[in-house]
Amino acid sequence: MVLGLLVATLAFWAVGAYNRLVRLRSDAVRAFSALDNVVAVQPALIKAGQLEGRDGVDAHAGIEMAAWSRLEAAAGQFAQALSNARARPLDAEHLRAFSTAYDVLTNAWRAPEAECMDAVLNPRDLRARLAGLDEQAVALAAAFDTSVAAYNKAIRQFPAVLLAGVWHFRTAEPLAWNRSVA
Questions:
Q1: How far apart are CA 142 and CA 177, in angstroms?
Q2: Residue 174 buriedness (CB in 10 A; 0-12 / 13-18 / 19+)
């Protein structure tokens, strides 16, 4: 009877630990999904702005075309990295590539030569719209990092660490977008 009680206690504990880890992992995935909803808009805005912008650029406006080319390339790279991260939102490799691509995209539209695009796009002001989305993204990335930290802490705690290995729970990678929004 004592052995049966001990086995039942261990079984209930294991189920509870598993459910906690699943819930924390789901919280982190849900936090990434919220971030995804905001940042996925940026490549579409850039593509729409580029199409509008090229109509208004004359042949001697090479600066605008170069800025658009860099921005278009960065948006394409970012869209691919986001797609990969979306498929595996807690995978360290995908999240590092996503963070790098986001930094490249942000630097492309924040670059001084990108200011010339505003003249082409007014009154739409693409850069202001991207800055607003970036502000939201940084806040959502911080929420994602908080969820990831809670998940990582849970799978490292004893005795859950024993079960995490059995159930193939792996540590997740935070984004660490600790930058001020310009």
A1: 7
A2: buried
Contact 24, 150 (CB under 8 A): yes
C-beta atoms surrounding 10 within 10 Å: 11
Tell me how far apart the alpha carbons of residues 96 and 153 are, in angstroms, rounded to a whole number. 20
- Residue 28: Cβ within 10 Å count: 24
Check: CB of residue 108 under 8 Å from CB of residue 74: yes
Q: What is the mean pLDDT of residues 9-20?
A: 90
pTM of the model: 0.83
Rg value, the chain, Cα: 22
CB atoms within 10 A of CB 8: 10
Q: Which is it for the CA torsion 88, 79, 109, 143, positive or negative?
A: negative
Confidence bin at 60 (pLDDT 50/70/90): very low
Q: What are the backbone dihedrals phi and psi of residue 172, each rounded to the nearest 5 degrees, phi first?
A: -105, 165
Query: What domains appear along the chain, each with residue ranges and CATH number?
Result: 12-166 (1.20.120)
